[in-house]
Amino acid sequence: MEYIRQVVGGDKLADIFDIPQMFRSKKAEVIILFSDDYVEEIPKTNKRPIGFAKGAEVPDSFFEPMSEEELQLWGL
């Protein structure tokens, strides 16, 4: 796997990504990985225990895609 690592101003990244205004004046470290391999999706298992809450289970809804509204709240 090959990579490029570069420190750039957030204002330059704003031309590529939707970056909040408050980060555009800051420096960002960008790492781009190049690989001929691909990542296989890891099969999900239902009802995994949560480490900090013994006996609690992850509901199936956790694995569903986020709604457009939630994605916007995360800035995605």
Secondary structure topology:
Elements: E1 2-9, H1 10-13, E2 27-34, E3 49-50, E4 53-57, H2 68-73
In short:
This protein is α+β, with helices and mostly antiparallel strands and 76 residues long. The protein has helices at residues 10-13, 68-73; strands at 2-9, 27-34, 49-50, 53-57. The chain is extended, with a radius of gyration of 18 Å.
Describe the structure.
By secondary structure, the chain is of the alpha+beta class. It has one domain. The protein contains 2 helices and 4 strands, in the order βαβββα. The strands form 2 sheets. Strands 1-2 form a two-stranded antiparallel sheet. The chain has a two-stranded antiparallel ribbon with strand order 3-4. Strand 3 (49-50) and strand 4 form a beta hairpin. The protein is extended. The two termini are 27 Å apart. The mean pLDDT is 78.
- Number of folding domains? 1
Gyration radius from CA atoms, angstroms: 18 Å
Q: In terms of per-residue confidence, which ranges show pLDDT below 50 for 5 or more consecutive residues?
A: none
| Main sheet overview | 2 strands, antiparallel
The total of helices stands at 2
Short descriptors:
about 80 residues, alpha+beta, two-stranded antiparallel sheet, 2 helices, 4 strands, about 15% helix
